[in-house]
Amino acid sequence: MASTADLKKGICIDLNNELWQVVDFQHVKPGKGNAFVRTKLKNLKSGKVVENTFQSGHKIDTARVERRKFQFLYSDETGYHFMNNDDFEQVSLDKAMINNTELLKEAQDVEILFHAETEMPLICELPVNVTLEVTYAEPGVKGDTATNVTKQATLETGTKINVPLFVNVGDKVKVDTETNQYVERVK
Q1: How many Cβ atoms are within 10 Å of 76's Cβ, its own excluded?
Q2: With contact defined as beta carbons under 8 Å apart, do 178 and 125 qualify?
Q3: 57 and 82 in one domain?
Q4: pLDDT (tens digit, 9 = 90+) per residue, 55-69?
Q5: Weakly modelled stretches of the chain, pLDDT under 50
Q6: CB atoms < 10 A from the CB of 166, how many?
């Protein structure tokens, strides 16, 4: 048992006999009345995100989850396949259980959350940033760099993102996995 004071991003809770992950939370103390905690919760089975409000000090059942490092192997019609590098155990997940499949490439390390009591995989999380190679990008126009102009580029996974004009084919770029946006060029 925990209280609303123990809430933080990424913690898993058991609410109405379902497992939820806290995506975002905000502690609110209005001028009148009691304080409360406004949360965004993601259902670990369906992937649906809902907002929920708890009174300050409310008791919450936390779910015991384990984070394990896996490596992405391949995807096919049955799902996405991952391997644990320690014991070579393989796990197959549905697309709905992975937070951003467009940025997933072979041999990439990810973390998979498992429910501690049932040993059931819950969700797959990519690292905060991934480094991918640009496979196609229009050449930049010389002299058009005075403003923050971007162009569309295709990455090695087939994902299209906006990048600055100086990024060319063959460059490696760092991409934020939460927003699918360009972060920086990698040397």
Answers
A1: 8
A2: no
A3: no
A4: 988 898 888 888 899
A5: none
A6: 10
Domain holding 161, by residue range, is 129-186
In the listed set 19, 39, 62, which residue is the last one of a domain according to the structure?
62
Looking at the fold, whether 152 and 109 belong to one and the same domain comes out as no
Q: Render pLDDT for 79-92 as a digit per residue (tens, 0 to 9).
A: 999 999 889 999 99
Same domain? For 7 and 48 the reply is yes
